[in-house]
Queue: 3 jobs
Job 1
Amino acid sequence: LGGLTPPARRAAVHFAALVLQGVVVLLLLESARELPTATAVLGGFTLVGAAFAFVWFRWVMIPHTLDMCFGMLTLGNLGMLLGWWADNGFVPLHDGGCRACAEAARGEMMAPWMWAGMLLFANAAMLGLGRRPLPRGSSHVPAMVTGGNLGMVAGMVAGGWVAAHLPADSVPLAAAVGFAGMTAGMVAGMLLGTWLAEELIAAARAERRPPRGGAPSPASGILSDEIVRR
């Protein structure tokens, strides 16, 4: 990667993150390791990763909001899956075709390392994996690391709760539904939380800003008296 431009290196990270998601899926689901299924899983994640990286690299003026979503779907989801695997003791989920097994797999969701992995990798994507440099001197970066993070956590909780109430009779289906629900919640929560934080920061700055044409401050009045006396 040393000879690549910075955008090309970041595109390669997007690609690698999606390929590695496929690897972690196989680590979580033992039944997916049979050759035809494993080939389909790894091939699917590789194709999606290549498409994501190509579009992201070619789209120089990608809207920042969409750029953030790319990071959530690549690096953020990788952190979530790695944390899920860690929370399960680095062994596959309780695989099987029974409802009790599916419920047990759902019980592994929302554990500490899943949170840590998601937040660590998602923030790395937001702060260092953008197509263009982040705007400096604005409220956007503080809003991302405050409201954006709170929104991601709340969104994952909401998405996981909804997924847990959907019918699933097998571990792979329960895991897929849970992963999709938490991903959708994470992305939506990040966007909404960042927007709300930006609005609050803008409102707080407006409150501190003195009104135009208002009464002079005491300090300015003292300065005017000194000028008159001189």
Job 2
Amino acid sequence: MDIAHEIQVARRAAGLTQTELAQRAGTSQAAVSAYEAGRKTPSAETFARLLAASGARLEVHPARSAVRSLSLSERERRGQILAQVIELAEALPARHARQLKLPPLRDIVGGPRAAA
């Protein structure tokens, strides 16, 4: 569901301006504009209030398809992956050294160069 689109459709179907809808819903025109543009997402309560102010309402319908449960083999495979991730995380150092132990820069770049 595209909330921004639903608010705009409900408002237009009611023949309301953004300002009129905002006044009926107890919010600002700027908020309605931001919701319709998708710049902000209203809470469920605000969404229902905006729809009610336009003469529409929010309905909940059962899902079209059942929730798929994982097979035993898929759960076992995912469990093995999780165990590997935990094992890897446990192998990482828990504390960092206070000071990095790096060789001096001159040792990395080859020491001081002779003047030509």
Job 3
Amino acid sequence: MALPAPELGLVVSYAYLWHSEYQLGREEGVKDRPCAIVLIKREVDGDTSVTVVPITHVPPASSEDAVELPAATKRRLGLDEAQSWVVISEVNEFIWPGPDLRPVSRGRGRFDYGFLPPPHSIGRYVSG
């Protein structure tokens, strides 16, 4: 299985560690989930740091915490039909590719679902 290059808007399968899980002392997320890459930073030492936001079925406590993922986008990515939100109130950052990337459970031999459409692919590439 070849790993994709990190790109803004790419949705990957990742063991996302929620802040609440981190506060309980966990070091790894309980569940693998789709996460979108929103920031890519080339570090001075040559590593690539990636920041991801999680996609979840749990409705946000506040509309300012998440953006609903359109049904058409979910279908194109091969996700289920249940309502989902891209959480923008917390992130995970890791060195690419990192041990928490997971193969997509559909058995496609991939680690990614595809890309969010450009209006949702708000992110940044930072060098240095």
